[in-house]
Amino acid sequence: MSFSDQEKDISKYIHKLGNSHDLEPLMERIGDSRFVLLGEASHGTHEYYTWRAEISKRLIKEKGFDFIAVEGDWPDCFNINKWIKNGDEQEIQSVLEEFKRWPTWMWANWEIAAFANWLKSHNQERPASEMVGFYGLDVYSLWESMELIVSYLENEDPETAEIAKNAMMCFQPYKERDSYGSIFNKAKPGCQDQVIELLKKVRQRSHNYDHALEADLNAEMNALVMANAERYYKAMSDFTQNSWNVRDRHMMETLDKLLDYHGDDSKVIVWAHNTHIGDARATDMANHGLFNLGELVRREKGTRNTVLVGFGSYAGSVIAGKSWGAPMQEMELPEAIPGSFEHKLHNMDSHNKLMIFDEHPRITEAFEDKIGHRAVGVVYDPDNERSNYVPSEIPERYDAFIYLDQTQGLHPLKYKPEGKLTPETFPFGI
């Protein structure tokens, strides 16, 4: 059977996606799963954020999910967490403007502002123990975590604060603030031993840190960032691929700590790039000894308890930078290259689509061979488009996939809306 014949054959098993009510098949596929990982094919696409928000709202309201964990730095995301859980009268824009590291647009955008406002409104109707949280999984924020934990412990636990200060001095030779991914390679010997000692102390005494919202959790997670960041930056400075594994293992360790904190039956929604949430074993990453968060969650939490949802689009625009640290700009997202996964979905018809891969064997059979699947990073060169495609066994990489035919760049906070409080960040009238 030619692929064009297969396209006609499987199109009847693919759901059209127009509004949040069309997500019902995905809600049924998720069922009682505790781990739902929602991807994105870029860090700068409006529709990926709004559709993830719609899915998350339904999971929270209908299935009792407890928190959201995102591909963002712990300290900045914890500020969002505090804002959505307390009665602070300041606007969310003030909180999001604290995201200083490049690429700021990933979280300091109007789409996140709108979703955070919804989360705050939802939480105001619930007791403190049932409020939905918002946390960062990433390892980049080494120095910010150091400063926060020293400042906090000086008031709460002076003895442990001294250990934190020593660890901070250990890293002093390579304190840098110039970019999101500075490579640190001048640390004094034994730095990691000092931060691990700090982490142990914080864990032992965290039950006493009760003078602020989730202060025990915040102290422990900032210490964990410190413990893992030295390994991550060391791997980067040695130019090894191991830095990827260190980073995703840190995300998994952070996720485990959050699950422990929220209880044995807690449920989590993860927002991260497809390259983190799609099972690495279904891509060429596995050939290079790399794993990712989606693979780790499946392996350690069980495939029956985990749902991985990929995202992709055919053409439009995207927010990105020409190089690392470069000014953000709205760029053209070219039409998907011929023969790619996105191109084949476009050729079926121009509708947005929801695919559930185990819903019918015809869907799996149609995409059982590896096929190019677009991945756009924070650095993007549309003129070198072919390098942005990852060979993937799509039904093995994801449990479900949301295809959006035409997409647009998201709305960074610095772009002020005209004549209204926010841009059209929720297109469904909900």
From TrEMBL:
Residues in a coiled coil are none
Q: What are its GO biological-process terms?
A: response to antibiotic
Q: Which Pfam families match?
A: Erythro_esteras
Q: Which InterPro entries match?
A: Emycin_Estase, Hydrolase/PRTase-associated, UCP036794_erythomycin
Q: What is the source species?
A: Christiangramia oceanisediminis
In terms of PANTHER family, this protein maps to:
ESTERASE, PUTATIVE (AFU_ORTHOLOGUE AFUA_1G05850)-RELATED
Output this protein's name.
Erythromycin esterase family protein
